[in-house]
Specification:
The chain is mostly helical. It is 77% helix and 0% strand. It starts with a helix and ends with a helix.
Length: 112
């Protein structure tokens, strides 16, 4: 993960994604999938970002569920799929009702 983040810092996201992909092929990791999603989003490749966040959510027993869930919502917004974003936000707020950032994002979604 640290090596991939180093390449991200050097703005070589393509190589960072290669490193991340090689790692998760052998060791599925919610943390790495989240980082991959963020990397894709920074490259404005929102479809691959969405796929990475969803793969991360499928990793059992991960500690990144909240972050992955939120990032998936934002990715759907960036894809222009506001209905899916609203659906996932509703689910998110049931589990994390005290998340102020998500409450603000939900207010924004309601205008779409």
């Amino acid at each position: 993960m640290l090596l991939g983040q180093s390449y991200e810092a050097l703005n070589d996201r393509a190589y960072a994604l290669t490193l991340y992909s090689e790692y998760v092929a052998e060791n599925p990791s919610a943390a790495i999938y989240n980082q991959m999603g963020l990397c894709y989003a920074a490259m404005e490749d929102y479809e691959n970002a969405r796929l990475a966040f969803e793969k991360g959510l499928n990793v059992e027993g991960n500690a990144y569920r909240q972050e992955l869930s939120y990032n998936r919502i934002v990715t759907y917004e960036n894809l222009g799929d506001f209905e899916s974003a609203k659906k996932y936000m509703k689910e998110y707020l049931k589990v994390y009702p005290d998340d102020e950032r998500a409450q603000r994002e939900n207010d924004f979604l309601q205008t779409r």
